[in-house]
Design brief:
Order of helices and strands: EHEHHEEHEEHEEEHEHEH
Oligomer: single chain
Shape: globular
Strand content: 15-25%
Number of strands: 11
Number of helices: 8
Length: about 260
């Protein structure tokens, strides 16, 4: 079991939610301002992307710039395969551009990502191998993106089974687990195309599952993302602000002033 040196050390679990993941950046900003130390980070889907950048030393300002430069479809390309209508190969290229060809097991902050093996239906906690491939596998929305082969598994989005990835920290015996749930407080808009239908369908499933799975966290941060959607990248600045506004007061209440 990991022995925490002081109460200001936390294990951070970042949930999925596509573009809503920009709210994670605001959470990281609040953590920095309150001088809270993150000793482990886990991520599902976009949480894996943000978590990986953070675990390898990217400051929240740097992650903000990356988020501002991306478009939902910038990280996808059309591919008419049996596994999906899009490919998220561009995520691999983007992660390698930002971090290089790094391995998960070499991250300065211990890092894990959650995905699902689409063949066995089992949860896969990715703790080794290419960071870029791990992020791509964890964020592979079923039916939208083609599944990703990694470490002997055929992976899809971990949100199917654990959208806020608390279990890697619980299994490691960590305490002060802080989860970030992006899904519970959103509402879905009428879909305009097949991509909207698929994303809304996944979001509804995640919303229902997340209500049950987050009860084991020591602290949950649940930004009010009413009025936001999971696709529009123009929301990024407001999402970062919403994440900060949700995180700062609850972290301050739990941990106090530094």
């Amino acid at each position: 079991m990991r022995i925490f040196k002081n109460k200001r050390e936390v294990a951070l679990a970042l949930g999925g939610g596509a573009v809503l993941g920009s709210a994670h950046i605001g959470v990281l900003k609040a953590i920095e301002e309150l001088h809270i130390k993150v000793v482990a980070v886990s991520g599902t889907s976009v949480g894996a992307l943000v978590g990986a950048l953070f675990a390898f030393g990217k400051h929240w300002h740097e992650i903000e710039k990356i988020a501002m430069s991306l478009n939902w479809l910038d990280i996808a390309s059309v591919t008419l395969t049996k596994g999906g209508i899009l490919s998220n190969d561009k995520i691999t290229k983007m992660m390698r551009k930002e971090l290089g060809n790094v391995k998960i097991e070499n991250s300065p902050i211990p890092l894990s990502m959650v995905a699902v093996d689409i063949v066995t239906g089992e949860k896969v906690v990715i703790v080794s191998g290419s960071v870029a491939d791990g992020v791509r596998g964890s964020s592979c929305i079923p039916g939208v993106f083609a599944p990703v082969e990694m470490n002997g598994h055929l992976l899809v989005d971990g949100g199917v089974i654990e959208n806020v990835p608390l279990s890697p920290h619980i299994d490691a015996g960590l305490k002060n687990i802080v989860g970030v749930d992006l899904i519970s407080n959103i509402h879905f808009k009428k879909p305009k195309n097949v991509l909207d239908v698929l994303v809304n369908s996944l979001g509804i499933a995640l919303k229902n599952a997340t209500r049950l799975e987050t009860r084991t966290a020591d602290l949950m941060i649940t930004p009010d993302l009413t009025g936001f959607n999971m696709i529009d990248s123009k929301q990024v600045p407001r999402l970062i602000e919403a994440g900060f506004n949700a995180a700062h007061p609850v972290l301050l209440e739990k941990f106090g002033e530094p």
